[in-house]
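@channel sequence for tomorrow's demo:
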Amino acid sequence: MADEREVLTYELFGNAVQDLARQVVDSGYEPDLILSIARGGLGLGMGLGYALDVKNLSAVNVEFYTGVDERLEVPIMLPPTPAAVDLAGLRVLVADDVADTGKTLEIVRDFCAAHVAEARMAVIYEKPWTVVHPDYVWRRTERWIDFPWSSAPPLVDRRGGLAH
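structure tokens (generated this afternoon):
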């Protein structure tokens, strides 16, 4: 069915974090910093930080999706971005919710490549058509994903006041 969706609950999210952390540990990778892609990767980055005992967390804002299956032509990295000097020589684990087109991960990977010792990527979901294949993936799907933090409409519409 075309309208079937992958539904991630908070309980499954907890399982995903633990499974991804186990994948990282089992691979022998020891990140110095977890770089979350905002907004979708923030929860995963925090969870991985606790599970891997990494207290050095940072975020990068990338705007790409504007709605359900609606996106800008290319992702845009929004300021503030982490300073290159703060990343120099570090082993970085990039965290995001989904590798859909892979374009968001691609722009962050390219940003990191010039500065860090090594960067690996962890995502909850990977789509088969992504141009970037993360190192650590919890599940693969072709479906649209309902995340627990974004499946309900916001309480506030920043373009027009309180939502109804």
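heads up for whoever presents: The CA atoms of residues 59 and 100 lie 19 Å apart.
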